[in-house]
Amino acid sequence: MTQTVRRMSLLAASIVAALAATLLLAASPAQAHTRGETIQYGCGWTSGYTIHAARAITTSGGTIYGYNYLVQRGSYWCSATRKVYFHNTPTWTTATLRVAGTNYTDAGDFREWAAVVRYAPSGCKQAWGYMYSTSGTSGTRAFSGITSCFY
After folding, report:
1. Among residues of the chain, what percentage have pLDDT more than 90?
2. Confidence class of residue 19 from pLDDT cuts 50, 70 and 90?
3. Are 46 and 40 in contact (CB under 8 A)?
4. pTM score, whole prediction
5. Are the beta carbons of 93 and 117 closer than 8 angstroms?
6. 116 pLDDT exceeds 80?
């Protein structure tokens, strides 16, 4: 009888420990990267940059999927799109940088951000970003709008 009680106690303790470990290891909702982390990892810069524009990427219904930034460091410019709504889920995400009328785009089923960097000492620079609610260019679309020209 004592051995049976001991075994049941050990079994109960094992079950409780397993449940506790499962709860601790369960994935909580992914936290989106900060603006600074997006610029660091997307553009490759940790300091010495200027953010000229920041725009929310929204659906027609007003849901914010993320943000697009137009960033400058010296003569280099970056369009960085940061995901917040579908962070850590691969969905179609773009960042476009227009330099003197030519578009440069980073696009794909990304989990965290899209970013494109170009050397552009002169001319008009603009940025924008798109996101979709699914992989590929289907699902609900969100758009940031195009920034004004920065020189």
Report:
1. 73
2. very low
3. yes
4. 0.78
5. no
6. yes
Query: Residue 45 and residue 112: Cα distance in Å, rounded?
Result: 17
Give the residue from 30, 32, 151, 38 showing the smallest Cα distance to 95: 38
Cα–Cα dist 109/136, whole Å? 7
pLDDT of residue 1 exceeding 90, the answer is: no
Q: How many Cβ atoms are within 10 Å of 120's Cβ, its own excluded?
A: 20
Q: Give the model's pLDDT for residue 15.
A: 43
Under 8 Å CB-to-CB from 93, ≥6 apart: which residues? 66, 81, 83, 107, 108, 109, 110, 113, 114, 129, 130, 131, 132
